[in-house]
Hints:
The chain has 316 residues and is an alpha/beta fold.
Amino acid sequence: MRFAILGAGALGTILGAHLSRSGHDVVMIARGERARWIARQGLVVTGLANVEARPAVIDDPKRPLEADTLIVATKAIDTPATLASVGHVRFQAVLSVQNGVLKNELLARVFGPSSVLGAMADFSGELTPSGEVKFTRNVCLYLGDESGAMSPRAEELARLIDAAGVRSEAVPDIRTREWSKFVGWIPLFLLAALTRQITWRFLMDPQTAVVVVRIARETAALAAALEIELVDASPLPVPSIVQASDDAALEIVRGVGKAFLEKSPEHRMSSQQDVLRGSRLEYVETLGHALELGREVGVPMPTLDNGYRILSVAHP
């Protein structure tokens, strides 16, 4: 299959390297020094898998491009303009492994709803200063049709990606899975950026774990107001946190931290990586979107709002 991968950060590199190694026709769309590095060195993945591949790379998405599937792997920042740059290409399927829940709507505006597949990325990596990507978690890339029906197209893509070495599965409840990740990801994103700590550390610390619990409950209330079902999923089992007593919820969060320590001790949230690199943070398009939805449906989220305000001053 022919893949175009828009963005060559951690997730884009992991997918591009594995798919290219498996014999698929892959084009990486990257910018600036990252594009030049890939042109010189190829894609290099270490950590859970050691993969080197040399797919094609272009730094101008307006150039002629042919592909069956587009995978968007950029930060959520400036997504409308980013998608518009490849809006001239007709893809059979488009999906985004970006954070947040606005991504599918933005894809549909450019490519039409019929080509969009939902995606929930439960795998992680870190783009190192050397240009290599450290593959740190390989749980699953879930794909599915937003209609809630099992999609043969999603099943085929999941089969190809899984066979390439990045675990993937087609599911009928992709909206639930995307939101279940989103409501648990929000507190982790915020705490990682504000504390600059590795993931397991701020989850296990009682002081910050309390904040994680409060924000998770606030975002779960937003999902409930929007009539979106949630399930216990990565990165946090939010429904269990909502139903538990305060003490029990705190222990659930600390237990997740312990699991990170044991299974992925080097895992760093992308927000912490961006803070340490001095890169822009995607909080407006993700945390800000959640707060906007909360205002629309009358769900107050004071803990998240306070954290958002602090973050916006620290990283304007």
